[in-house]
Amino acid sequence: MASKPAADIIESIGGAENIVGLTHCATRLRFTLKDASGIDQAAVEALPLVLGAVPQAGDRYQIVVGGAVDTVYNDIMALPAMKKHAGDHGTGDTIANVKAAERAKGPRGKFSGLDTFFEILSDSFRPILGALLGASLFITFMALMATLGVIPSWNAPGVTLDPSWAFINLMWQGVFVFLPLMVAYNASKRLGADPWVGFGIMAVVMLPGFNALGLTDGAETVFGGKAAVVQIFGLPLTVTDYSSQVFPPLIMAVVLGLLTKYLKKIIPSSVQLIFVPFLCMLIMIPLTAFLIGPMGVYGGAALGNFLKSINDFSPFIFAVVIPLAYPFMVPLGLHWPLNAIMLLNIQSLGYDFIQGPMGAWNFACFGATAGVLFLSIREKDRQMKQTATGALAAGLLGGISEPSLYGIHLRFKRIYPRMLVGCLVGGVILGLGGGVKTSAFVFTSLLTIPAFDNIPLYAGAITASFFTAMILVILSGYKTPEQKAEFAEALAAETVASDDAATDSDIATPVVAGASGSGTGTGTATATATATATATVLATIGSPIAGIVVPLTDVPDPVFSKGIVGLGVGIDPTEDTVYAPGAGKVLVAQATGHAFGLRLDSGVEMLIHVGIDTVNLGGKGFEVKVAAGDRVEAGTPLVTFDRKVIEDAGYSLVTPVLVTNPKKFGSVDQAASGHVEVGSPLITVTAK
Q1: Residue 18: which of 30, 34, 39, 29 has the closest Cα?
Q2: Is 0.70 surpassed by the pTM of this model?
Q3: Where does the PTS EIIA type-1 domain start and stop, copy by copy (predicted)?
Q4: Which of 30, 150, 403, 683 is the most buried (most CB within 10 A)?
Q5: CA–CA distance, 538 with 687 (Å, rounded to integer)
Q6: Interacting residues of 346 by C-beta distance below 8 A, sequence separation 6+
Q7: Selected catalytic residue, list 25, 280, 365, 423
Q8: Collapsed DSSP state (helix, strand, coil) of residue 160
Q9: How far is CA 55 from CA 47, 139, 153, 317, in A?
Q10: Mind listing the pLDDT tens digit for each residue in 353-402?
């Protein structure tokens, strides 16, 4: 059975026919589209599974779905429309053909090359993130046992562990020792080469026999004794340990991808299966062993030494700059090279000094999410509560920041300054303490705290980062005034769907709103009118304010005019007091005075929104008369306003009067036009 959430995602981005390519990382679906210009980002982000959407250069589009990304990806690929588009059925264009057509169009934006580079880097690591995370927990366990004195320093040179503990220690090494092979496979596949050929090329320089070449007579030790140079057919071959290296396989895969494409152009297709792999290996194995491998090792070491020199010069500056830089690096993908440097540091130095400051950023990120969760619970924002809960769990237990970053922080820009303060506080604490190191590549979560050499310093720094960001977000809020208004309107509109108090018997009582406080006498229904109307009319709602009736489609705000919030009319007011249109309960009474949600005794739920965008006034010019939970009667004043304040601020006075639960009724119709007084019949609601 097809997955509706998966189908909804594909529909929101223009359907399967708009998709050129699809991959995914740990939390994001990565689309390459034919045309991304017409996508409604708000509609995409409104889908239940979607945490956020990130448009990119060159018609690339990312959709963040969190930890369930693999399941969602598989559901999408299983959709009949996707299978047909991929050429599994029918005679339509295949994905490969569409990609070729897109490439023929030329460059895909100013930064497309940079996007491609980081996308390749991400795709090379993404499939093995689970293995890295699992292995990092084994390392953390060993570090914890060493800290508690159960075992000796497990990673110190010359230390021999009991066979039982030695076996446990081997459980993480398989991932990190053979990491170059995994990266070579993924990168080769991503770049269009045979991934097993890439794997096999990288495997040659990791063979015990290759390392043994450095022990032969006449070998000259270099690179601080960590490598040896031996003559092979008169050419100098640098022999070194490639365990945990990531730059050599990445460079090798790039060259292999280019070579593969060239060979496929010049070799007949009938013999490509034999000669393309053979010639790739014939060329790439020597090239990797003699040139690419050493170049990757030395280049990576140079980058690592540069960062180490900064850290050695001033651990304080380094510990402050890294967490402040990460919030901007992660959205751009710039953190992937640093991950590679961390792995290289551990392999070459025996420790890494970047992950500690990175932890300050991560926990500031998670703290901001915790602040959003607290506010969403207080505000009864169910969707944000769900988003923040999942993001916080992924962060605290897995050390993964993307669900928080893309699902929340980049959507609500007020969060970033507060989060940066948390980063700064944690970084300063680490810097003043002289920094921390770890001998393992770990994801900075609660579970991996024991992996750091100075646990009290690291734990104190990340705790300070977390609570600083959380408290600042709670105190200042994370929504702009416009976002607060949108949420208030949505909350008022959805109350019937979540409240079973309104029963069918409630709705069945006819309500005819009479004039209250206006002296017009227009609200009295005659016996004849009642006899002809009771069969269908459930409620006739009186106008809450005197003014000119404005058809809903002419209300100057698309959220209202399109009926998204509810059905009804607008009133261009001629007076300055808004009254309850009937007897009922106040569900929402905004402190700013701009919006009120009511449930009338008839079961009709209403939203009265005084002016357009008037929430931005922050309550200036409004005097609220009621509070949420109050009982009101027809004609009870809700709010008075100063029209001059609203007009001087440049906002429209048109006041939408809406039925927010129209699906429960047969119809919601405009009952008046022109000028109306308070209590004059304005809207009629009929039974289904």
Answers
A1: 34
A2: no
A3: 557-661
A4: 403
A5: 6
A6: 176, 244, 352, 439, 440, 441
A7: 25
A8: coil
A9: 16, 37, 47, 34
A10: 888 899 999 999 999 999 999 998 888 877 788 888 888 888 888 787 87
